[in-house]
Amino acid sequence: MLRTLKVIVAMLVVLALAVAGCGGQQAKDKGQDSAKASSGQQPTAKPKILVASDTAYAPFEFQDPKTGKYVGFDMELIEAIAEVNNWDYEIRSMNFDGIVPALQSASVDLAISAMTITEKRKEQVNFSLPYYQSGQCVAVKASNNTIKGFDDLAGTKIGVQIATTGADEARKIPGTKITDYNTINEAFMALKNGNVDAVVNDYPVTAYFIQQGNKDVKIVGDLRTSEFYGIAVPKSKPDILEKVNSALKTLKENGKYAEIYKKWFGEEPPEFLPGEPSAN
What we know:
The chain is of the alpha/beta class. The protein has 2 domains: 48-133 and 228-265, D-Maltodextrin-Binding Protein, domain 2; 136-225, D-Maltodextrin-Binding Protein, domain 2, CATH 3.40.190. The protein has 9 helices and 15 strands. The protein has helices at residues 2-39, 73-85, 99-104, 119-122, 165-170, 184-192, 203-211, 238-253, 256-265, and strands spanning 48-53, 56-57, 61-63, 70-71, 88-93, 110-111, 126-127, 132-134, 136-141, 157-161, 177-181, 198-202, 217-220, 227-229, 232-233. The strands form 5 sheets. The protein has a 5-stranded mixed sheet. A 3-stranded parallel sheet has the order 5-1-6. It is globular, with a radius of gyration of 28 Å. Residues 1-39 have low confidence and may be disordered.
């Protein structure tokens, strides 16, 4: 009987210690959760991505005057990419010529800003799959019947946006006076005011500007180049590039990319986009 009593007492002691240990662990876990909550830590929070963009380049990126929200083709595309990757993101608005330096310093995680993929830029940053096909065009005042295209630009005054492929193309034309503007809207205003004879710029942006009631401006001649836009990523962040490319493929497959494209350009995108054009 005494032996049985000792066994029962021993079992009770073990049970009590186990309960106390469990309670201690629960209290510890609760304390850790409280500490995380009080410190603002969110273990399951989405990664936050900083996105650079020149937000004065409609219809790709611009600020809605009524809401103040950044809207446009690029803005909806990066929103869709963030959704696929479960990212939070923040748009960092900056002048176009500041975007590549920001990427090189990795002060932003990526840039979406109707940026043409060029060999020179590829030395400085990495690019995603091409997501838009564009080209350079000439815009003049609607009353101008002298300039009919690129071949008539020699010896004229040309407005361009600084650090763009339009600026590069304009500088190939002999005898011209080139004026660089921080935004393309400033170049268009210079054209309307007679400060320059023509503006060389991406076709879809120029066409959209005219469609917004600027009928005193017209596009003349053919497109000079065929260019492809890509999302730029710091060379130090290959994981971001991989996720961007994967998301672009997903958006192509599920039809979301085509939906955004048709909303902003009124037509179906080329079949290869997003992706490399066929060599054939």
